[in-house]
Amino acid sequence: MADCSDYSIDTVKRLVEQKKWEQVIDKCNEALLAIGEDMADPKYRFYRAKGNYETEDHTESLTDLRAILELEKSKISVTLRFDCLVMKAECLYSLEEYESCKQTVKTAFTQRSEPSLYQLINKCNAKLGLSGETAPVADVTQKKSFRHEWYQNDAIIVISILIKKVDKEDLTYQFKERHLLVDIKLPDNQSFVLNMELFGKILFTESRVTILPTKIEVRLKKATPGPWGKLERDKSSDTTSNIQSFCPDDPFIRQQDPQKFPTSSKTFKDWDKLAADVAKEEAEEKPEGDEALNKFFQQIYGKGSDEQKKAMMKSFQESGGTVLSTNWDEVAKDKVEMKPPDSMEFKKYDQ
């Protein structure tokens, strides 16, 4: 049996980065077969669609993209939905379905405006003999300003965007090593966009965005512990000089309380205390339903050894999801039998 890591999204992502499209398709097929298409992360179907698109099997790619877009909003992120719409539009263009491509682009415009969308709709218009027609500006949101603040400690940056009562369907965000994008759709065809090159590098897999009643909170995990001189990278100057200005050898820094770092505020606060509060808040979060179950599995799987992870994958798959064991010595011997709850009885299909 294949190691459980063979089915991980990270494995597929590495193959995507290497542009090994046939292997991307094969790995996604294996994962979807092992986990089940209804239970698997929709990203497997997205990456399989990407592989098929890159190998010019646009019809097969469309099948996966349409299946993802038909999922309930709670099962697919805003970012993934947007990416599916863009790839769907590109597939339709390649299949010469220009009107359908335009309609898909217009749907994507309701979530976010991208230069590539303008180019695609204009290419469709040219193919349809409508070269004088421009992209649908009525569908493009107008940007609006909102106040945002930030603070930091040695390990994290916390940005607060002071917008109240935002629905998760209206929020799109993206982390990169040194880049942050937050796009919030607002009423009256407006949006708020925070798009910046960051002062330092972040661990984007450990960063997150949280919707609170009175604001949006962005938490960025620093790749290298230590204070940042500012939030946004100054493109016109060398950031190395800014970093050096906060070197511990600087006598001004030695005179400050080491728990207090520069922020956008004119006053100083004890950010270590705030960081402790943040950590406490994360520990006290209580997800519900499927989210709670997924978090529980992630905690066990994330802390387990390679053998424990293999045991979890084998027991869960072979038992139809009724057994979850971390004892590889036990589950390696034989096939793990299905164990239904006490109040239920297992019967084969033909019984």
Automatic annotation (TrEMBL):
InterPro entries linked to this entry: CS_dom (IPR007052), HSP20-like_chaperone (IPR008978), SGS_dom (IPR007699), Sgt1-like (IPR044563), TPR-like_helical_dom_sf (IPR011990)
Database matches in CDD domains: p23_CS_SGT1_like
Domain (SGS) ranges: 260-351
GO terms assigned for molecular function: protein-folding chaperone binding
Name of a matching Pfam family: CS
Chain ranges passing through the membrane: none
Location of the CS domain: 143-232
Domain of life per record: Eukaryota
Family recorded in the similarity comment: Belongs to the SGT1 family.
The protein's name in its UniProt record: Uncharacterized protein
Origin species: Oopsacas minuta
Lineage: Eukaryota, Metazoa, Porifera, Hexactinellida, Hexasterophora
